[in-house]
Structures are given as C-alpha cells and as structure tokens.
Design a protein that fits this description.
The chain is 39% helix and 25% strand. With 124 residues, it is of the alpha+beta class.
Length: 124
Amino acid sequence: MNRQPFILLVMAAFFLVANVMAEDRIAIEKNVNELIAAIDNGRDPSSFASDAFTPYVFVMELSGRLLVHPTLAGEDLQERVQPIYEALLQATPEGVWVKYTWKGKEKFTFAKRCCENLIVASGY
C-alpha cells in the first residue's frame, strides 16, 4: 500500500493549520497593541467593549480585577481563577504568549503590561 498520498495530505493539513494560527497570533497582537495605544492616548480602559475585537480582548488590573471582559467584567480573577491570574502576571511591556487551561480547554493568550497597573490580553 502506498502511503505517500496520505503523508502528503497530513503535511498539507499541518501547514494550513500552522499558517492560520500564525495569522491569528498576528491579529491578536495587533488588537492588543491598538487597545494599549488608545489607553496611552488617554482613553479610559474600562470604556472598551470586549467584543469590539475578534477574538475578544480583556483588561485586568494587576490586582486581578477585570475591567473589560465579555462575561467576567468586575470580577477578581485572582480570587476566582488563581492559575489564570498567575499566568497573566507573566505579561511584560513587550508582550508575551502565556498558556493556561480554562473550562477544560488549553488557551493561548497574548498578554502585555500597560501603564503601571494594567494587563491587556487576547487569545484563542
């Protein structure tokens, strides 16, 4: 049995998925950077609609309180989901990709520190 067509199909699927993920990462980083630029120009961080971006963005104070999130705005992530809070604290001013589990799914989030006390993030 000739496995070459199957192997080529698997390789093509892998490269397609890798390309889509790379494009998603670029778009996510762009969204986070745009939101931070607006905050740096004086816009109130809590004035953003989380669903104005795809995928949604969220803004968290270093204390853990979510200022912007589609379902958890006003909640304290440090109290509610400590492992995710700790993952997000890895954020740097340059931005970093962090990994955590949320509701049984592995998530990848681009998190960036902004101002002195905010983390702006988005992911898939």
